[in-house]
Design goal:
15% helix, 227 residues, Protein Transport Mog1p, Chain A, 6-stranded antiparallel beta sheet, 3 helices, 2 domains, alpha+beta
């Protein structure tokens, strides 16, 4: 014998709400996609993207490629996108200084052209992206490749006066003229520095260096990473 059990009747307005929520949940978000012909990928759905190339004077191959973007998607979706797209391009994820958290990610990769770093964060309900690739062969040809395990600062004074750089408890005299760039290798860390000329302070700032990087210092701009 079959027994029929009477169910509880749901008011019409609640049935409409449940159906609406079901439809909303069942609508799959468009997957993140990239242009396969672009060397440094960013999702087509990005609300902002900016590509930068750093070259040494007279060199054809870039020292560093970087793309910054903002994507209206969850961090986990953007991370999956980059792991997929970079894998297609022959990039291999390495365990160096890997950070994977709910609100930020930092991963290192070995790419066909050199070391690379992916950084993801969250800002205003979007995922922020910074992807940078360095070319050690181009850096070696330009004589800006730092000593192994250290970072390199490159500085010069483009006016016909002698200036000085005060950093890491030492003062370095900088000859005038654009053909006198100078270099200093330092262990990774954050350093305060001062650029002075004519007895005046031209710039006081800080620079954070990681092993293998090269940064440029000037008196009128913030430090910029060139490799």
């Amino acid at each position: 014998m079959t027994t029929a059990r009477r169910g509880t009747r749901v008011p019409a307005r609640w049935r409409l709400l449940v159906c609406g929520l079901f439809l909303l949940a069942s609508c799959s978000q468009e997957p993140l996609t990239a242009d396969p012909d672009v060397e440094m990928p960013a999702p087509k759905q990005s609300s902002f993207s900016q590509f930068r190339t750093t070259r040494a004077h007279g060199a054809e191959a870039p020292l560093r490629l970087e793309i910054e973007a903002r994507v209206p998607a969850e961090l986990s979706e953007v991370l999956a996108f980059y792991r997929r797209e970079l894998g297609k391009r022959g990039w291999q994820e390495t365990p160096d200084d890997a950070v994977i958290a709910a609100d930020r990610v930092q991963l290192a990769f070995a790419s066909p052209k050199g070391p690379a770093t992916l950084k993801l964060g969250r800002a205003k309900d979007e995922t922020t992206v910074s992807l940078a690739q360095r070319n050690p062969e181009a850096a070696a040809k330009a004589n800006i490749l730092p000593i192994s395990g250290q970072a390199r600062l490159i500085f010069g004074y483009l006016r016909p006066d002698v200036a000085s750089l005060v950093i890491n408890d030492q003062t370095i005299e900088i000859a005038g003229g654009e053909n006198h760039p100078q270099m200093l290798d330092l262990p990774p860390g954050t350093y305060s520095y001062q650029l002075r000329a004519w007895g005046l302070l031209l710039r006081a700032d800080t620079v954070t260096l990681a092993a293998g990087e090269a940064w440029s210092l000037s008196d009128d701009e913030k430090p910029s990473q060139i490799y």
